[in-house]
Amino acid sequence: MEPGDWLLSPEERGNPATVLDRRRDGGAAWSADNEVTPLVHGADYFAELLTAVKAQRAGDLLLFTDWRGDPDEALDGGPGSKIGEVLCGAARRGVVVKGLIWRSHLDQLQFSSRENRHLGEEIEAAGGECLLDMRVRLGGSHHQKFVVLRHPGRPERDVAFAGGIDLCHSRRDTSDHAGDPNPLPLAAPYGPRPPWHDIQLAIRGPAVGDIEATFRERWCDPAPLSRSPFGRLRQLAQHEDTVADPLPAQLPDPAPRGSATVQVLRTYPAIRHGYPFAPHGERSIARAYRKSLARARSLIYLEDQYLWSSEVVSAFAQALDTQPGLRMIAVIPAFPDQDGRLSGPMNLRGRVQALDLLHRAGGDRFAVYSVENHQGTPVYVHAKACVIDDVWACVGSDNVNRRSWTHDSELGCAVLDTRLDPREPRDPAGTGDGARTWARELRLRLMREHLDREQPEDPAAQDPLCDPAAAFDACSDAAAALDLWHREGRRGPRPAGRLRRYATPHLSRLAGAVAALPSGLVADPDGRPRALRRRNAY
Questions:
Q1: First to last CA, the chain
Q2: Containing H/E element for 113?
Q3: 189 vs 193: CA distance, rounded Å
Q4: CA atoms of 103 and 115, how far apart (whole Å)
Q5: Which of 260, 322, 325, 368 is deepest in the core (most CB within 10 A)?
Q6: How far is 324 from 268, CA to CA, in rounded Å?
Q7: Residue 365, CB half-sphere, CA atoms under 13 Å: how many?
Q8: Is the distance from CB of 266 to CB of 214 less than 8 angstroms?
Q9: Residues 6+ apart with CB under 8 A from 227
Q10: d(CA 168, CA 42)
Q11: How far apart are CA 365 and CA 358, in angstroms?
């Protein structure tokens, strides 16, 4: 197997303006020899981030992007651990702190404008610089969520954190899923302290330089921070920082230190007067999924906040349709949005279309689940992770929906391990690739949590979940047992596991409405129903 069998070439990325594919001799569009650690749950990520930032000293560099930042969110619950305190403390120590946070359109829409402005003001007052960035397509957002820490003279400490976890309320949860003590309101079934499931990666090695380069491309964009004349007037009236100060020169990439090949993938929208680093947009996340799904033979394991829009899930459906031995497991929220309903008929129609497409393609080889904690409270699945054939894995800020594949800014990391899993040296997928240690361990870790299974004491011991068919059946059996326990009034001991079959009767009632859609149109949960424009094609 060659990395190019699964990863994108510069031509396949389709964005010759980016520096990412010109950073290495030979034009490699990825970096080899990285150490990548999955940080499952916000509490694990926040604790590691807190330790790393507190170890920084004068002259070090801290770069971050976020969709929402709450300065009073505690990273570990202890004194001095609030995000605002930690970032401001670093700036006061002489760390160069630079941030790009999305400026949402209106607080009245319950996005993040007020909170992001407060975090930016605190960082600026401490000597850092935080820009409120609204250089997005109309109705879009900057959704990337990553932090880069660089250490001149101490490159062994360099690390990038990238994935789906914002620096904000509700994210600091654990595998017990009792919820963050500082919650955001969600749908009523999630309760006053919503359980939250999420994933971030800690990356060490040359790929840190690629993620830093992504930040620098956005930071150095000379365009005004708002594309709206009214937005620019508001920034002037509020005396906001609208000009980015120069960044220190980028350090050489950290030295190799692991076995993982990492490719940084992005989405940028095609906009008028486009970004200098993506003048026609970038669709490398969508293109990477399509390339990898075309190689799928045994098992697609997906955790996603949305999984809707039939135009997007068609890539998954095509894989199921063309490979009779392929199975797919999807884990999504029981209630996908903040008010407990799929917001409006277009979202309902889009979910019906997407799941119906996957069911028709895969039949009983496609299964979709939600998650609950041991008290029976639904867990909000905010993770954005996919593992294909235990070979290719991707974790990022991007969801399986149209916004993430065409409209918002996103960043994901595809991981391809050079190590064959010693527990299964054969080729279960029939592609000649063989299961890879990192991708398989990520899938097993996530599935073990959902099934209430412990990791074997001997890492070399054979785990039944390694087998794709056995893993698929284990999820089905666990969900069936838990569903039956609920139907029978929760009598007797609670069965092991946290998976529930995703309930769709409320969606099925809208089947007639779906059929009534005009031909040629797609029910797009992220806007009005329309066919995708060619400029957004992936």
A1: 25
A2: helix 113-125
A3: 10
A4: 10
A5: 260
A6: 34
A7: 21
A8: yes
A9: 134, 135, 136, 271
A10: 10
A11: 9
Measured distance CA(328)–CA(330) in Å, rounded: 7
SS3 250: coil
Alpha carbon distance 36, 306 (integer Å): 25
Q: How far apart are CA 71 and CA 74, in angstroms?
A: 8
Q: What is the pTM of this model?
A: 0.91
Which is nearest to 209 in space by CA: 52, 47, 31?
31
Longest Cα–Cα distance of the chain, Å, equals 65
Contacts for 518 with CB less than 8 Å, ≥ 6 apart? 529
**Token duo for residue 147:** 């932090």
Neighbours of 508 (CB within 10 A): 13
Q: How many CB atoms lie within 10 A of CB 94?
A: 13
Question: For residues 396 and 383, what is the distance between their CA atoms, to the nearest angstrom?
Answer: 8
**Regions of the chain short of the pLDDT cut 70:** 103-117, 226-242, 336-349, 424-432, 504-538
Angle, helices 437-451/468-487, rounded to nearest 10 degrees = 20
The number of beta carbons lying within 10 Å of the beta carbon of residue 330 is 24
Helix (H, G, I), strand (E, B) or coil at 223: coil
Residue 49 near residue 171, CB atoms below 8 Å: no
Which amino acid type is present at position 360? R
Cβ(464)–Cβ(420) below 8 Å: no
**Distance from C-alpha of 206 to C-alpha of 145, rounded to nearest angstrom:** 19
Amino acid letter, residue 205: G
pLDDT in tens, 226-237: 665 555 555 555
- Residue 431: predicted pLDDT: 57
Bridge partners, residue 370, by sequence? 500
Angle between the 113-125 and 83-92 helix axes, to the nearest 10 degrees? 30
Q: Return the H-helix or E-strand segment holding 163.
A: strand 159-163
Residue 506's pLDDT is: 46
Q: How far apart are CA 244 and CA 250, in angstroms?
A: 16
Residue pair 179/98 in contact by the 8 Å Cβ criterion: no
Spatial CB neighbours of 58, under 8 Å, sequence gap ≥ 6: 93, 94, 95
- What is the radius of gyration, based on Cα positions, of the chain? 22
What's the CA gap between 432 and 235, in Å, rounded? 56
How many C-beta neighbours within 10 Å does residue 220 have? 12
Lookup: tokens for 179: 């919820």
Round to whole Å and give the CA distance between 453 and 497: 8
